[in-house]
Input
Amino acid sequence: MTRGPWLALAAACAMAACQRAPVSPPRPRDAAPDRPLARFYEADAGAAMFTEREWRRIRRMSPVPPLEPDPTNRVADRPEAARVGYALFHDASLSIDGTVACVRCHDPARAFSDGLARAEARGLRGRRNTPSLWWAATHRWQLWDGAADSLWAQPVMAWEHPREHGLSRDELARRLIARHGEALRAIFGEPTGDPLSVIAQAGKCLAAYVRTLVPRAPAPFDRWVAGDASAMGAPAVRGLQLFLRVGCIRCHSGATFSDGDFHAVRFPDDPEAGPDHGRREGAERARLHPLRAQSAYSDDRETMFPPNPTSPEDEGRFLTPSLRGVALTAPYGHAGTLPTLEAVIDLYAAGGAPSGDPNARGERDVFAEPFSLRGSDRADLVAFLRALTPDAAR
Ligand code: HEC
Ligand code: HEC
Output
């Protein structure tokens, strides 16, 4: 044979099909030539615990993909905006008595939460638990009830909140210009004199910073998915199986373990803080928010849909929180009424607070059916949840 046909064949191969091995080696049930998960089938009897469909799901749970762009914030990925955001995040002078900065409640050592049941500032207790900010940028709706429809609409709520920074809108704008005016001007040009305009600019810089708040190391679960069979012990692997089979995955889905949506799972309110209606209030607040995605302050008023009008079914619905970092963010739930992960799991097993409970609202979501816990189930689920936090962060 001359060299001609071989070259032609090589060229055809380089173009497409032949780049895959012409004869595939026999593979275990699940085809995964590019990811070493298949190794579990040989190395670890625990691997047989998962069906093919479950493996496909597990692969979607790690690693966390890069953030989607935010068209409503044109500086969302500009490092100089994130630098200004960092300064704003740590600036206590943006509060009525000069003692409250964002970082006070969003502590980097606790995945940017505060360890309290309900947030506290200036001796005042708020009505809700401080959520982690890890991966906050991956969901559009911010706050437990989604009252902010973008990451940059949220800071003004903290700055003006009487139990957080406690500033009036005009005073806030004045202080922003006095302390950060030059930095903001360098990014956005001359200010217009409209207080909300400068507040929106500061919010966009804070959003750029919050987008960078992701754990620096992979969690044991990520290392396990990447092929390190020793990264999770047998209890955590069994916990993962339960997580898939009792249906946690239906809402805590994808690589951030959140569907970014609202559900009623009947976690109790704190009676001291009063009833919390969740999304039923939040949707309305988001529609009226001065810095909503459809406002004149947005950099893209077309792409983002407004919230659906509130309906009675929204009663007691809250944003599904990400579970990454959950080992660091106790106590749990919108009002911090569940002290431990064990308490959370017991509540789910019971199907949420009972229907007569005056401290829980809403009709239980169909995805949150009760289930029975046997033997080591509770401990295994907790072991899995803990494997979602990087060791170094603990
Ligand atoms: C007094 C404590 C406190 C301070 C100060 C504070 N926060 Fe928060 N933060 C909270 C609480 C509590 C929530 C949940 C509130 C709610 O759902 O209504 C929250 C929610 C958030 C969220 C939404 C996260 C999510 O996943 O829904 C973001 C983002 C955020 N804060 C950023 C900030 C920024 C930026 C600042 C400074 C401008 C700030 N926070 C100041 C306590 C605080
Ligand atoms: C129907 C959707 C849904 C299902 C199913 C579900 N969750 Fe949740 N999860 C939520 C919502 C919504 C919240 C917030 C509830 C609240 O605060 O009122 C939450 C909160 C949590 C929290 C507290 C996180 C925090 O930061 O406070 C943990 C832990 C958790 N869920 C784990 C689980 C586990 C484990 C399962 C399976 C047994 C599960 N979830 C099933 C939607 C769901």
About this structure: Confidence is low (pLDDT under 50) at residues 1-45. Residues 246-248, 250-252, 263, 265, 267, 318, 320-321, 323, 326, 329, 332-334, 341, 344-345, 348, 365, 367-368, 381, 385 surround heme C (ligand 2) (CB under 6 Å). Strands lie at 120-121, 124-125, 262-263, 318-319. The chain has 13 helices and four strands.
